[in-house]
Please model this.
Amino acid sequence: MSATNMKIMIEKTRLTLLLVLALLLAAKAHAAAPGITGPTFNLVATPAFISQPDGATVYSWGYGCNGNPAGYAPAAITTGFCNTMQVPGPTLIVTQGQTVTVNLINQLPSAAGNTSILFPGFNVTTTGGVPGLLTQEAAHLGTVTYTFTASTPGTRAYYSGTQGDLQVEMGLYGAIIVLPSAIPGACTSGVHASNATARGSSSLAHPGVTEHDFRLAAAAYSHPGACYDREYLFQFSEMDPRIHREAEEQSTRTCTGCMSVATEPYVPAYFMINGRSMPDLMDPNYAPEYPHQPYNGNPHMHPGELTLLRVIGTTRWQHPFHEHGNHVRILARDGNLILSQTDPNSLAGPLLFTTTTTPGLAFDGIYYWTGKGLNWDPYGHNSASGSTLPCTPDPDGYNTGAPTAINYFEWCQDHNKPLQTAPFGDIAGGGPATLPDPNIFANGAWFGGSPYLGPDATVRAVGSTGTTPPSGTVANSPTDEAGFAFMWHSHNEREITTNNVFPGGMLMMMLVDSREFVIDESK
Amino acid sequence: MASRKLGALLVLVGLALIAARPANAQSFQVQCPTSTITHPTAANSEPAYTGATTFATGAGGYLTPASHVNGAIKCQQISGGDGFATMGDGTQTYLFAFGPLSGLQDMANGLPGTEFPSVFNVPYGGTFKPGDPATADGASSIGPNPLSGFGYNGAVGLAPDRDCLADPTCAATIPASGINGHVDTRPIMDVGVMNGNIPAPLMVIDEDDEFFLTLTNVGQVMRPDLFEQHTVHFHGYPNASAFYDGVPDASVAINIGGSFTYYYLAPDAGTYFWHCHITPPEHLQMGMVGQIYVRPRQNRWSGDLYSGLTAQQGDLRTKCDSTDILCSNPLPAVNTGASGGGTYAYNDGDGTTRYDVEYPIQIHGFDPNFHFVGMTFNPEAFTDMKDKYFLLNGRSYPDTVTPGPLATQSTDGSLHYSQPLPAIINIPAGGRALLRIADLDVTEYQTLASLGIPMTVVGYNAKLLRDQSGNNLYYNTNSITLAGGESLDVILDACAVRASDGSCTTLMATGTYYLYTPNLDHLSNDAENFGGLMTEVHVCNSVVGTTFGNTCN
Model:
């Protein structure tokens, strides 16, 4: 083997190890949009080291909690913590109309000088601190207080207003979520009520087991078009390790505000969502191995659930966030609902399959996946083997009238319709597609083991063992989850790397799970 | 312990054998059925759309079409492998690339390689040679070459399954012709190896079509150390299945020496694209990206367009009312009374996306260092990736305005049509051109500006720009900016003054206009400081033909 070939082998081995490690850690981790509640928040800006999947620990600055916060949300996640430094900063969760008070203490090194927080979109009054360019700032070991009314609902960014080219790069940013004061009736009735029933213990898909509600609210805005069943928050940022290294080197200087770090040229090597890179990104929220990166990105959903994406861009670059599996309806930007000019009940935001994240800009969007229009039954139902499972279409064509059924929200037009010409196992045949010899495939780690959705279909499709030889589907067990995995990632594809190694960076797998799989975001 | 493991292994092997039986035992194969559940009779043309398909429950317990069978069956075969392309400064650049293995003549003419079964399922009468169709055309030099009418658009390699025909039991299960997707490997290797294209082969289907896309992995001759798998990701397809989504982590990837047929019912009309999803920062930078677009039903409706869209509401799969948050074409707020018979970007119901000529425009960028490293067995760096060739349909100016396919000599000594698509926009004066623009770049955002002719953006990310109340949200601009991974539909209107009834009262002056990038550093071909992301728009007295390969009079 030549030296260069050996290099390639080393690179490939490293990659494989990374992936295997990722999978060991990623199993069963879910997401939601966790944060802390107020309306008074005692924050502190502090240095600490955050970790990256290549083994690097990167000197960073972040906002954290000065003492215990008033509470954590959503209630179904009970493992929350808030250290004195985290990246992104704590997600501040308040309700429309509340008076929000943020007390900030500056515990950055004295060489870093002052720091502050901007809350774009709110009318902020300040108390204490020292004058800065954009707002009142907290001097080294000093404090400043920001007060504002959470006047309108939505997702917004907050970030340092002091020497942003350095301080935001170092990690001083976070999200504030304002929940609407009034929830439209449409969000708690009709199909949303049925979705709640389907999560309950009476579901024949998981009898006796209740799937918890991990939402912060039932609507993102006081508008019937803003109802949702599940939600996730993703904050995009990139990091140039040279800047962090130089800041670390200068952090011990004893003078005040004398740090001088060149922030150009800018060559980021880490591309992060919620402060983590793939595969760390898919580990649980509040995983103990990331004391300063508590938030993850590991979305799950059931077919038909409206899923709210709260997405924020930070640092400097735009990132084209590509959601596999369906489009996203943009509801709002920076907390401003986008409505029709002629009818305030109608939405007017665009439908996008690539949602650009822009520094300082937040958007809320709605996504769902139902399998509508595949022209084959993704559950592999087989009427020939005596299956008489009904599928009764509602006016939109879905089986929503039976919330406790195992095939709740199935797209009925394709019920029982075969995909394969001559399938193996208890799956309807006579369909259009012939699958080749499995030996010419390489199976992915998130491959459910068959073309079909859910453990019931997959076990029927591939026999009693629930594995398709050759196996290797370790992150999406054929007998337990067998979800449809979709990659959600930056389509500036070089950003799905970690310090030059693929896979990594801004990449996560979203799983659509059949009703049998109980989604537990607290794990 | 050891025997238990052995036992488990034997069970696995046994399962593998059983599992393999219903599958075609051959590694290379194509699939293009002449009829299916959805298209019960031979579907070799697009029937007129006269209403939503109605269904009845059949013997299998599932719905089968009862009336108004819409759409057809379309098939395409592509190779996954490598090749070379010619850059605007004459440099030969190494590609990881897809190449055409069906519709060879159409592809050489700048058309999609997507074919009806009646075309796809015809074996070639002659003997393929490396480089075909360029070799058969007598291509003699790098760059543009005259076409001599190669004359074959079927599936390369297709051959009667003689082994099956010789066995009466097997023969009873296949057509008497022996054409069942069986292929002869040799012509596939002769044509497919080192036959990479940039952009990857164009695919075009119509709403209601069933699409069978066979990917055949012929290996990468220049990088035998990589044993690369390939896949096809249908970028932007709504409600995709994970199995056919082409993400190797979430599905299966196709090894060298194997074929895999992707199956989709055409989604909503719009401009999508497709690419390999193996190590995307590498395979996309190296060239494994192309466009697929879906034409709307409205093209097949002859009555008034509002009634046509109303009739489409009878189809649960595509209906669009306020209850579905992810549909974009509700009935228009204003019934313009426009009548059908034209070609449209979307099912608009008001004729506002009507066009006369259409052009797929694919933006891409190549980093020559990365491509060199990609050819030479060295580890790749991603943080330093910097594009220096800026491509429209795989070419830099002035190659963008060269008619016909560009040929590149490959390491097999043959000339191959490496870049079949020009980027010449011919518009009849007073007419409209639809530009289906996709950005396939993997490093940065790209801007494309129109010098002289305003752009009207009618679609974005394969969706009509319309709010839930039916108000069109089109906007006029002279430049569009896209991320890698986005698409956008623009109409260029070569009419200076248009009357309220839509007729053109003052034609735009004939002549040459330009599409170019105001990212001025992208107007370069590596070290050459003039070229890059730029092409010409010709406003003509008349245009013969509706897309690339047409003539401007």
User: Anything to note?
Assistant: The helical segments of chain A are 3-26, 164-170, 190-199, 241-250, 455-462. The longest helix of chain A spans residues 3-26.
